[in-house]
Design brief:
Length: 599
Amino acid sequence: MSEHLSSSNPLRDALRACRRHFIFAGVFSGLINVLYLVPSIYMLQVYDRVVPTRGTTTLLVLTVILAVSLIVFALLDAVRMRLLLRASIRLERMAASNILHRILGTGAASPLQRAQAMRDFDTLRGTLTGPAIVALFDAPWAPIYIAISYLLHPLIGLLALFSSLLLIGLAVWSDLATKKQLAETAQRSTATYRSQDYSIQASEVARALGMRDALVTRHLLERAEVVRQQSDVAASSGGFLAVTKFLRMLLQSLSLGLGAWLAIHQQISAGAIFAASLILGRALQPIEQILNAMKNVMSAQNAYKGLNSFCRLPDVTITPTALPAPQGRLEANGIVVRAPGTDRVLLHDLTFTINPGEIVALVGPSGAGKSTLLRVLSGALEPDEGEVRIDGARLADWNRENLGRHIGYMPQTPTLFPATVHGNISRFRAFNGEIGEALDREVVSAAQMAGAHDLILRFSNGYDTQLSVREGGGLSAGQRQVVALARALFGRPTLLFLDEPNAHLDMSGEARLMQTLGELRARGATVIVSTHRTGLLQAVDKVMLMRDGTIQVFDDRAKVIRPTSVEPVPEGRLPGEGRHPNTDRGHADDRPAAEGTNG
């Protein structure tokens, strides 16, 4: 399914908006680097003018000039850091919202890309206030220091040029030698943390099945591989850094020796000896700083590449033309879904139409594709081929936030957020400014319709009960299911997609669900519900039987299920189960229904 494409890249737009900050930071860097020369000039004047003439007044004036210059230097450095900090804040303000919307709203990115995008953004933003960016601003001034060294004496200038080229070559070599290792280490580290997070969520299953030792061993092996890769990178970087420090100290000392030799031959003054050493050291300092921060620089470079690629995905924040509230007509045209990263087809070219106000039951064995189809119809999953239309408009043509207010979706495994029960049911409308008694009435009404009101009142703090971060929010499967059903019913949606809503309900709960479906029919809502219990079929208008990602039967309930079949049947099986599949719509009695709970 196509989406509106972004006309611009939010990351590049934000960085472009920060250009003025970077320009002024560069200007201040120039002034700072000019003031870096003050100690060298001070030393040159002291040795060449003050000491030979014993000029105390001159020394006092030079010292005052030195102090004022260093105060200005400190102020400029503080202003430069503040400019970079403001650029970081502006980057956050301009790009973070769009990136978060893409993370939560795009179906074109893999889970790993979505999980990594915000980390990449924080890495990039953090680099703007770190030592690496300062070194990059100072680096262009190295040629100026080399030129000044040349003014002291051509040989000193040549030594400065050779030293700079040597360290630059070492920096490039370091980058080439560790770039691939850093990228692989970052990917492996991310995968390791994701694996650990998943094990934490499934820790109850691990304890019950005696899997703890095996999982700990698995994670230790994964961590050992990450630590090995990190050690290799650290060893390589540390070796280059040690060589860089050695060369810088050696070359700076050699400049003293060269200056002394030139002074002996009366080609430069005594003060120029120390000035040459200081200037050479200043010319080499940015290169050493970059090497020190090479890991951060490369991490920022990789973060920018990954984030820039992520920001090229369709922009879900673009608001299409507002459409009227949906009436509930649902069309699926040529829907094809493949398993991520494989050619295995989960849904095969599905085409059908559901009219407004109809209640359709999805039945079929495990793996038939019921849950996948519900995800596609609700807009939670984008098909690889085909399209879904609501009231004749593609999902991409709707404002998804506005459309979401008219949709109720309950996945097979309900996901509740670590917030209050009220916040979960209300879909966090309070953050959109919808607060007060009107919102409370809607929340309670949805809970009553789902049969969850009395249950919620028995929670520790009722609707204000805070759910935890752990799996299920601290609720049982049945409690979680009715709260999720209340969330799906919140706001009186026109279209509802319910995946096994009665999987954990007892007889009274299922009777309440049947009543809820009747109320939804009365108000003209379109409902697609996946179920494996035959009792729920009494409340539906049509039945869609699926097998292996295809639709075997889709017809009125009365034609699919024999009216005379009133005898009890085993749970998970419809009358007619066990007969040979027959897609001929002329003989409904021969159509099988399916068992199982998973789509």
